[in-house]
Amino acid sequence: MDLSILSFGASGWGDEMLVGAGMTFAVAISSYALALLIGVVFAACKLSPIAPLRWFGNFYTTVFRGVPELLIIYLVFFGGEMLLRSVAEGIFGYDGYISLPLFVTGMLCIGLGAGAFCTEVIRGAVLAVPKGQHEASEVLGLSSWEKAYFVIFPQALRIALPGLANVWQVTLKETALISVIGLVEVMRAAKIASGATHQPFTFYMYAAVLFLVITSVTNKGFVRAERWSNKGMER
Amino acid sequence: MSEQGNAHSRTGIELQNVDLFYGQFQALKNINLSVAQGEKVVICGSSGSGKSTLIRSVIGLEHHSSGSIFINGERMCTDPKVMAHVRRDVGMVFQQFNLFPHLTIAENCMLALLRVKKISKEDARARAMTYLERVHIPDQADKYPSQLSGGQQQRAAIARALCMQPQYLLFDEPTSALDPEMVNEVLDVMVEMANDGITMICVTHEMGFAREVADRMVFMDRGQILEIGDSEEFFTAPKHERTKNFLDTILSH
Amino acid sequence: MDFQLMLDSIGPLFRAIPNTLMLTVTSVMIGFVIAVPMALLRMSKSFVLSKISAGYVYFFRSTPLLVQIFLIYYGSGQFRSELEAVNLWQYFREPWFCAILTLSLNTGAYVCEIIRGGILSVAQGQWEAAQVLGLSRFDQFKDVIFPQAFRQALPAYGNEVIIMVKASSLASTITILELTGIAEKLIAETYQPLEIFIVAGSFYLMLNFIITQMISFGERRLNRHMARNS
């Protein structure tokens, strides 16, 4: 194996791969942020006393946890574009070519899938806060919003952190699937490079190593966050 | 006063014909009890007799199915406004302390002062310290609950309740979750509070404490009040056979 | 919504289910066979053996399945002459072989951790009790520890099986026409993604439902057995 093809500059593919890794990280971070937002909203739905909201939340998590991400990607990639086009034509009378940026499509696909997992993690964490915490807040006269914000949420966050760290790992890995719609992240870069050099193993292995690096580094961040959130918990 | 004995007496806690069901199971049966301001009432009875349910329904943690509960003349119901109002006058101490584990002891005491009473941070801190001194743990103020012993945690929980300066304080088996050697430090604090004149309703098995502070004793069995009496009389000459049996078993060890 | 298209797509999509099941079932079984010895290696006292297992688990859990599939299917092409020399190329040029190999190695790593967690959850006293009864090390594991560990691990294991149903969809990226592969083909032909998604998605949810039922049936059986003995 000749590793000089991994060097930077015109002769090597090292710089293209690193740019791809940067794109992977950017998609992963944005999808994760979206997933957290979705998770909080849908966990609230699923815990809501209003039955239709609960049904809606259950429908979302059942579908998006049970259907392969690849299928979701095809739905959003093809469907999102068509939706956009019909809106553009129907409302604005514009019938030219129009499409979502690949980055946004990718973020939506991965975020929607990961959001379902976030929802379950957050819901489980809220339910894991002991009943006595609710009662103590209530007898002190805190409103239900104050109770949620000052008492339940901080404790649920601590319980949810390991699960959320896990969702981050899954999200990061799933961004690889975005390569099928053509966004040049690390997998796409590896595909292009191996097509040009006929060294697929070298480049997919390099992609794997880049994923390992991102996973390991970000994992440290979560470990630190967990330690910080456990203040007051250990004896 | 002329209002004494009136169903809508201005002050005090009054339960009239209170029933409470959990599905088919009747946890409270036709409870009638009135507690005047300044009075100390101890409720005893075997487990499952409904004594915890009774005080939890006073503060709206359980909702009675029929009958009425009045606090200072206000009728308790599920309306959040009414419950908020009642909870300004009534505090509660739990068996499991229920301190907020992510907040320090002082922050536990200050939270409701800041959010409900809306007093300034400095005043809240000062008041928290006052009451932490009353329960003899001012030096633990900046620790987290898990760093304290059980007895200290329960005293912190008492301080948290006192900070809201309630007229009435409910205790739900405050010493049952404690190691034996820590029971007395909590009871001592409760005796001091009783001497300060706060109205207390205590569910407890600590009969020594009951004898010392209770004005009246209530004995419950299977969701009913079997006997209410002056504490002296209750201990020396219980009327009911079941009360006698209960006192015999609990005082024999 | 084009209901006619949905009806028309049911046939082709349904005929793709055996492929999805084939991929899932085969790799779940092979994965389990890989996972048990790997879990034991991981807990062995030998530093080298335990590190080998840890490295395997780390690699397959920390990299995307897509990378793993491409690495094995496309990557093996880089070593074609070497593989031909040992008569293995005939396998590695087959998408089915590569898909099942990757899925098995991938799920093996996750199941290894699940089993290890289950074994660690069994109280130390169980090992000791089995030991003082004079059971061999192998019997201690087989008759005392593993049954308890498996019961503990079953919910997580069931989850992993459902994840594998979804993971089998990645075989479509190396030309295997299972459920997602057919769905993609239909979407690209008809440009009606929502209709196809609803039908294909429903099939996936049905498969998941059946597996969930099977797992909870298994759980009930194991727990009934426990209740009888206690």
Poorly predicted regions of chain A: none
Question: Beta fraction of the residues of chain C?
Answer: under 5%
Roughly how much helix do the residues of chain C carry, as a percent range? over 70%
Structural class of chain C: mainly alpha
Q: Indicate the multimeric state.
A: heterotrimer
N→C terminal distance of chain A: 54 Å
Overview of the structural elements:
The complex is a heterotrimer of chains A (235), B (253) and C (230). The relative contact order of chain A is 0.16. Chain A is mainly alpha-helical and 235 residues long. Chain A is flat. Chain A has helices spanning 14-46, 51-66, 69-92, 102-128, 131-139, 144-174, 186-197, 200-229. Chain B contains nine helices and ten strands. Chain B has helices at residues 51-58, 80-89, 105-115, 121-134, 150-163, 180-196, 207-213, 231-236, 241-251, and strands at residues 13-22, 25-35, 40-45, 66-71, 74-75, 90-93, 168-172, 199-203, 216-221, 224-230. Chain B starts with 12 loop residues before the first strand and ends with a helix. The longest helix of chain C has 40 residues, at 3-42. The termini of chain C are far apart. The chains are: A mainly alpha (235), B alpha/beta (253), C mainly alpha (230). The interface between A and B is medium-sized, with 23 and 32 residues.
Features:
heterotrimer; A: 235 residues; mainly alpha; B: 253 residues; alpha/beta; 6-stranded mixed sheet; 4-stranded antiparallel sheet; 9 helices; 39% helix; globular
